[in-house]
Automatic annotation (TrEMBL):
<keyword id="KW-0812">Transmembrane</keyword>
<keyword id="KW-0067">ATP-binding</keyword>
<keyword id="KW-1003">Cell membrane</keyword>
<keyword id="KW-0597">Phosphoprotein</keyword>
<keyword id="KW-0902">Two-component regulatory system</keyword>
<dbReference type="GO" id="GO:0005886">
    <property type="term" value="C:plasma membrane"/>
</dbReference>
<keyword id="KW-0472">Membrane</keyword>
<keyword id="KW-1133">Transmembrane helix</keyword>
<dbReference type="InterPro" id="IPR029151">
    <property type="entry name" value="Sensor-like_sf"/>
</dbReference>
<dbReference type="InterPro" id="IPR036890">
    <property type="entry name" value="HATPase_C_sf"/>
</dbReference>
<dbReference type="InterPro" id="IPR033463">
    <property type="entry name" value="sCache_3"/>
</dbReference>
<dbReference type="InterPro" id="IPR050428">
    <property type="entry name" value="TCS_sensor_his_kinase"/>
</dbReference>
<keyword id="KW-0808">Transferase</keyword>
<dbReference type="InterPro" id="IPR000014">
    <property type="entry name" value="PAS"/>
</dbReference>
<dbReference type="GO" id="GO:0005524">
    <property type="term" value="F:ATP binding"/>
</dbReference>
<dbReference type="GO" id="GO:0004673">
    <property type="term" value="F:protein histidine kinase activity"/>
</dbReference>
<keyword id="KW-0418">Kinase</keyword>
Length: 535
């Protein structure tokens, strides 16, 4: 269990120490073997050089021809051995009889070891076991001027002596090994410390579990999530964010700059700014999104920015419809109140015996109401759109605004989905009512709705102060508004419908003043499937 709880940094440190230790041990072993081979090679070269020097000495050749060679050769060989630091110098006859040896008792006895190549006139080195133990030795022939072999010289260094030379180098080798181990351990510790900071001391099992849980959560939440690095690159994006931003699963997003991904302008501006946002509405294609953004940090260090997105398209549509219904309800209440006042006036006139004036007043009110109803219903056979215009007319009357439906208006059947028509007409009328609010009388809003074989036309004009042409683009693209924060999506919703049908919207300022919005929506051969409202 303790091994399972080891952090990745701890496991990596232990693994690195083990690997480095094995490498250092292997390297030390190799260095020892190479040093041993070098020492032996140097010993072979040394004994061969000493043997050739002794064999070429005139004194040796002269002594070999004397009646008692040992008398001369033993002192000469020993002095040379001590001078060169070798372990033995043996001068012998071709029949192996020794004339010199470090152990005088062995003089006169046969030499132990290989000498055949030297008898053939060729110097050589070999490793043999003799009276002094295993040794590296060289055997060189002693020749006369005519080239005849009259004796042999063997010079050797024992293996024990070679090993002592090798052991003399051991402290330096051990010091280098210890330094390498210390340096590798320090490097491993620094690397593990950095990795511990990066993984927050978590083990592999914990990281795997966290990844599985977080991945499951990110892909299952119904809220779009987008995480950016401090340099404004996408670090993480979940499935809902891809859907809301119009990205497919095949679009490469991770590690790419936000500016290169073609996000909707409002979303891209918010991401690039890095500012905090709380329930901020914005447009993304044909969707109305609510965004929340905040910078994140860990241990006082900025790690990026987190953006969450919620789809409020249907909610905004329903809210707009609810506002229309609420306005209609308030208008009906006001009309009921006004009707009650007029009814009391008529009754009072009757009680006062002024029946002609009572009939005239009641008839005039009924005529005006019936004319408005007949004009709207006669021009627009779509019940929902006709009801919307009647409601807006009552709402306009409550605000002291005259809503005029163009007598040329005509809309039969269902050329487009009624939801889209209500969105366009309702929001344009609401915008016009807002524009004329607070202006000097007469306040008027004019509406035209018509259709040809190819398109539906909607025109809504007002007598307000007029919209600055420089603000038209922002009014549709960004949901710009002169009203208080959190509103101003009416024209943006109109722009969404126009974009969905590849239509056209024109904003002009007539000579008479005010603003005229003209919308043209082509009638497609196959109508778009409207989104279902939430139940």
């Amino acid at each position: 269990m303790s091994r399972r709880r080891w952090s990745i940094a701890g496991q990596l440190f232990a693994l690195q120490v083990l690997v480095v230790s094995l490498l250092v041990v292997a390297g030390m072993t190799g260095a020892v073997l190479l040093a041993r081979a070098d020492v032996r090679s140097a010993a072979q070269e040394e004994v061969l050089a000493v043997a050739e020097a002794v064999a070429r000495s005139p004194d040796v050749a002269s002594a070999l021809g004397s009646p008692d060679p040992a008398t001369t050769l033993q002192p000469y060989a020993e002095s040379t051995r001590r001078a060169t630091g070798t372990n033995f110098i043996v001068v012998m006859a071709p029949d192996r009889t020794r004339y010199s040896h470090p152990n005088p008792a062995l003089i006169g006895q046969p030499f132990v070891g290989e000498i055949e190549p030297a008898l053939a006139g060729r110097a050589f080195t070999t490793i043999n076991v003799g009276t002094l133990g295993e040794s590296v030795r060289a055997v060189v022939p002693v020749r006369t001027e005519s080239g005849a072999v009259i004796g042999l010289v063997s010079v050797g260094i024992t293996t024990d002596a070679i090993n002592r030379k090798l052991f003399a180098q051991a402290p330096a080798l051990l010091a280098a090994t210890a330094a390498a181990l210390a340096l590798a351990a320090a490097g491993s510790w620094l690397l593990s410390r950095r990795l511990r900071r990066q993984t927050h001391g978590l083990g592999p099992a914990q990281i795997t579990r966290m990844y599985e849980y977080y991945d499951a959560v990110l892909h299952s939440v119904r809220e779009g999530l987008l995480v950016l690095t401090p340099d404004r690159r996408v670090a993480l994006i979940n499935d809902e964010a891809r859907r809301l931003l119009g990205l497919t699963g095949a679009d490469p997003v991770q590690e790419r700059p936000v500016a290169d991904l073609g996000f909707p302008p409002a979303v891209a501006d918010l991401l690039l700014s890095g500012r905090a946002a709380h329930d901020e509405p914005m447009l993304a294609g044909d969707r109305v999104l609510v965004a929340n953004q905040r910078a994140t940090s860990f241990g006082g260090r900025a790690v990026g920015t987190v953006l969450t997105l919620r789809d409020h398209t249907e909610l905004r549509t329903l809210a707009s419809e609810l506002d229309s219904v609420r306005g209609l309800s308030e208008a009906l209440q006001a009309q009921a109140h006004e009707s009650a006042n007029r009814l009391h006036t008529v009754l009072t006139l009757v009680e006062l015996g002024r029946t002609d004036e009572a009939v005239q007043l009641a008839t005039a009110e009924l005529t005006l109401a019936q004319q408005l109803t007949d004009r709207v219903v006669g021009a627009v056979t779509e019940p929902a759109l006709a009801a919307l215009l009647l409601g807006k007319s009552a709402q306009a009357g409550e605000r002291g605004v005259e809503l005029v439906v163009d007598p040329e208006s005509r809309l039969d059947g269902h050329p487009l989905p009624i939801g889209d028509l209500l969105t366009v007409v309702g929001n344009l009328v609401d915008n016009a009512l807002e524009a004329v609010g607070g202006t000097e009388p007469p306040r008027q809003v004019r509406v035209y709705v018509g259709a040809t074989e190819r398109e539906v036309q909607v025109r809504v004009g007002d007598s307000g102060p007029g919209l600055d042409p420089a603000q038209v683009t922002d009014a549709f693209r960004r949901g710009w508004s002169t009203k208080s924060a959190g509103r101003g999506l009416g024209l943006a919703l109109v722009g969404q419908v126009v974009s969905r049908y590849d239509g056209k919207v024109d904003v002009t300022r007539p000579a008479a003043g005010g603003t005229l919005f003209s919308v043209r929506l082509p009638i497609p051969a196959r109508l778009p499937i409207p989104r279902e409202s939430p139940t």
